[in-house]
Design a protein that fits this description.
Elements (H helix, E strand, L loop, with lengths): L3 E4 L17 E4 L4 E3 L4 E5 L2 E4 L4 E6 L2 H7 L1 E3 L4 E3 L8 E6 L5 E3 L4 E9 L28
Antiparallel strand pairs: 1-5, 2-11, 3-10, 4-9, 6-8, 6-11, 7-9
């Protein structure tokens, strides 16, 4: 699959996969930003993309940033729809008690291209019954 990508800023970095088996590609910041403790900010990438209809770009946290610094994507996974042509931005949050500095060029998130299915919604008066029924949060227990 090819994805057309446009640099909106000269410092923008075209994403790439770091290994042959990688599901996600790195997304870089084009700005220097300090995320204060418990703060969230929208970080610019300087890129826009044309994603094929029937697919989405999911923005996900980088595991190393989450493990070592408690930095995550707030609306994880963030969705970039196939008809969006604006700048890709990443909503990061600092869950730690320490400030975290992002410098221009840092890898701040990862992107995954995923197939999207659109459903037809049919209103009915009754739904089929299941063993679980309406059991929700925690209904299956811990063990």
């Amino acid at each position: 699959m090819n994805i057309n990508i446009k640099k909106l800023h000269p410092d923008a970095i075209i994403p790439k996969y770091q290994t042959l088996g990688a599901a996600g590609f790195d997304i870089h910041s084009i700005e220097d930003v300090t995320l204060l403790s418990k703060e969230s900010k929208l970080i610019k990438t300087g890129l826009s993309m044309s994603i094929q209809q029937g697919y989405e770009l999911q923005i996900r946290p980088r595991s190393g940033l989450a493990l070592k610094y408690s930095i995550s994507v707030l609306n994880t996974p963030g969705t970039i729809d196939s008809d969006y042509r604006g700048e890709i931005m990443v909503l990061l949050i600092n869950h730690s008690s320490e400030n975290f500095t992002i410098t221009k060029g840092d890898r701040i998130a990862q992107g995954v291209i995923s197939k999207v299915y659109q459903a037809d919604f049919i209103e009915v008066s009754e739904l089929d019954e299941t063993l679980r029924g309406s059991g929700g949060f925690g209904s299956s227990g811990i063990k």
